[in-house]
């Protein structure tokens, strides 16, 4: 994924991350940066927390002070330019209205990911859902919302599936996700048939963790681990997203991402092998038809 195909959200994150890493590599405190450049104490900090984007003049001063490697000023400025553009997911307003606070940030990072590791024990993962299944799930989670809002949220979920064209997606589903009757048997059969189709996609791996596995480390609930295109000048451990009823949790330190990645690996190891997934799905479809 080239720089021009990176999402605004990912570019904003990487500008903030690189400025922080350049500063800490020089052993400078934010207060020292402010003093050296004649800025307020908070200005440089706002760049590192994604609250603000720097101007070209700001970047010139910062990269000079930090003794950034040659060419990084241009890379940073290019990313600022991309970060200023609206993402397609903002076409109908802020995506935060479609989920927990900062849901728009999740969509922007998801669409810029190179790899997605998704654990979903309860329902079919949103990226794998059919429109009718998604509508029913979103309605169940937002019973007080008018149908037009449910329609908009469903449309956004469908458009997010474009990530299959640019990212490797590995999903582990709990067996219960296949057996939870959503809407009616016809909707479920269609959803399960969709999973069968996706098994043939070159960028998608789907596994099922059977009930017989017993207790496992995924009992804490669903999560998504996002890895992004490599940048040799940037130490980017990735991001973990864990969605709740009112808010989402984010984890982006090396140790946190490593822990979730290892947990996903254990779930995948304990799940049925990918080449057994089709048989499992077919069995459930047959049961629905009886």
Q: Main attributes?
A:
single chain, elongated, six-stranded mixed sheet, 12 helices, 11% strand, 290 residues
Walk me through what this model shows.
With 290 residues, the chain is α/β, with parallel strands linked by helices. The protein is built from 12 helices and 6 strands. The protein has helices at 8-25, 30-37, 43-48, 56-66, 72-83, 103-110, 131-141, 147-159, 175-179, 185-198, 254-270, 277-288; strands spanning 115-120, 168-174, 204-209, 223-227, 239-243, 248-251. A 6-stranded mixed beta sheet has the order 3-2-1-4-5-6, with helices on both faces. Helix 1 (8-25) packs antiparallel against helix 5 and helix 10 (185-198) runs antiparallel to helix 12 (277-288). The radius of gyration is 21 Å and the shape is elongated. The chain starts with 7 loop residues before the first helix and ends with a helix. The mean pLDDT is 93.
Tally of strands: 6
Q: What structural class do helix, strand and pairing data support? A: alpha/beta
Specify the oligomeric state: single chain
Strand order of the largest sheet: 3-2-1-4-5-6
Name the beta content range.
5-15%
How far apart are the first and last residues' alpha carbons, in Å?
46 Å
SSE order, as H and E?
HHHHHHEHHEHHEEEEHH
């Amino acid at each position: 994924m080239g720089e021009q195909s990176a999402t605004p959200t990912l570019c904003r994150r990487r500008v903030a991350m690189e400025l922080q890493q350049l500063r800490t590599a020089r052993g400078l405190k934010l207060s020292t940066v402010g003093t050296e450049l004649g800025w307020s104490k908070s200005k440089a900090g706002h760049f590192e927390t994604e609250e603000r984007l720097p101007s070209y003049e700001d970047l010139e001063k910062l990269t000079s002070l930090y003794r950034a490697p040659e060419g990084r000023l241009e890379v940073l400025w290019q990313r600022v330019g991309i970060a200023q553009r609206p993402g397609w997911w903002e076409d109908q307003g802020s995506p935060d209205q479609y989920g927990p606070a900062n849901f728009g940030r999740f969509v922007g990072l998801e669409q810029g990911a190179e790899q997605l590791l998704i654990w979903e024990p309860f329902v079919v993962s949103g990226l794998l859902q059919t429109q009718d299944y998604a509508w029913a799930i979103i309605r169940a989670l937002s019973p007080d919302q008018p149908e037009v809002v449910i329609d908009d949220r469903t449309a956004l979920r469908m458009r997010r599936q474009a990530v299959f064209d640019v990212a490797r997606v590995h999903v582990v589903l709990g067996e219960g996700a296949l057996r939870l009757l959503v809407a009616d048997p016809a909707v479920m059969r269609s959803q399960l048939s969709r999973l069968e189709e996706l098994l043939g996609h070159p960028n998608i791996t789907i596994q099922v963790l059977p009930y017989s596995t017993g207790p496992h480390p995924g009992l804490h609930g669903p999560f998504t681990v996002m890895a992004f295109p490599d940048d040799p000048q940037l130490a980017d451990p990735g991001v973990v997203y864990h969605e709740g009823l009112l808010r989402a949790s984010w984890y982006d330190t090396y140790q946190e991402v490593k822990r979730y990645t290892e947990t996903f690996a254990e779930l995948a190891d304990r799940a049925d092998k990918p080449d057994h997934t089709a048989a499992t799905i077919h069995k459930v479809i047959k049961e629905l038809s009886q």
